[in-house]
Every structure is written in C-alpha cells, then in structure tokens.
Amino acid sequence: MLLAMGVCAALVERSVSGRGQVVDAAMVDGAALLMAPLFGAHATGFWSDERGTNLLDSGAPFYDCYFCRDGGVVSVAAIEPKFYAALLSGLGLADAELPDQQDQSRWPELRNRFTEIFATRTRDEWAGHFDGTDACVSPVLTMGEAPSHPQLQAWGTFVDVAGTQQPAPAPRFSRTSPSVPTRPRLVGEDTDVALTAWGVSATELATLRASGAIA
User: CA dist 45 to 49, 167, 175, 208, Å?
Assistant: First the structure.
C-alpha cells in the first residue's frame, strides 16, 4: 500500500515538475505510519504497553467482543457518548447505576455487567435486537457466513468466481469498473495453445501426448 501511494504521489509530482524520481518504500515505514496515532497516544501517557488495558485493544468494555448464549460472538465499538448511550439502552442499562464510561479503574465492573447480559441471548438475537440502532453492536461472522450477510450482498462485497465466493475488486470507480476476476487456469489447460504458439506442430503434439510428456 505504501509503495502504491508513493507511485501515485510520484506520478502527480512528475506531472507538475516534469521530472521523475525514485520511490523508496519499506514495509517498516508503512507499519510505523499506521501506528502513528498510537505512538502519539503513548507519548502522552494515554496508551500503555500492557496489552488489553487500552481503549482500542480490548481494555475498554465498550470496545470489545462478547460471547453469547449459543457460543457466537458480537463485537461492540460504542466509544462516542451517543453510541455508548444507545448500547446501554439496548442492554437495558439506560437507568442503571454504572461507573462512568471513562473511569478505567472500574472498567472491570462494566465488563462483568456486559458479559452477563450478552450471555442471555444468541448472537443472531442480539444482532436483530441492535439492528438499526447506533449502538455499534455487530455479529462476528465466520468466513463462510460473511458472503451471505444481507448488507454485504446488497453492496456486492463478494463475487462468485467459478463457484467460489471471493472478495470483489476494490476500490470502485464511477467510470472504470473493474471486471470480475476469472478462475486460475488448470494445469495443462493451455498446453496446446502455448506449444502451438512456440511452433510445435499438431503431429508433434500428438506424439508428445502419446509418450506422456504432456498431459
């Protein structure tokens, strides 16, 4: 991704300056840049090195995953006050006496309450319960389930390629839509075409096939 961004930037710069340049991109640079917000949070003391204690690494009870009654899982990402209020309402906790959302010392209490409540229904029951709300609660789908999800079907996120579901090309453009990928070629499927293009005659092909040299 970093290399692609660099190439795009270099092409834009070339159109302005008329000069080319070498793009020097490294994966470690990309990883560091993706971590830039977290490095900033760490520098201010907002982010701890201890895993599972921070806002976005499952430390916060309102940004985590929970097991349901059937063993399924739902994800919760209700960080902003509006979404957190919708989460509490959906869990029946709107009027409950709870610790302040940002009181990290009492996050374990909140987690216990959420864990107990989510365990009372199945994953799909919770998905239906929160559907259409701003609570930021979603079912965690398996790879087999994802292509059949109504939202992903409506958006065309997956395409069928020779009987196999796979992600559709992205991103999408308004004028130049990418074509649907084709299946990989089978071993030997293009042998005759390739060898003929290289000058091998039909008689030679038959001989090679009879000898077992080609499939």
Answer: 10, 39, 47, 71
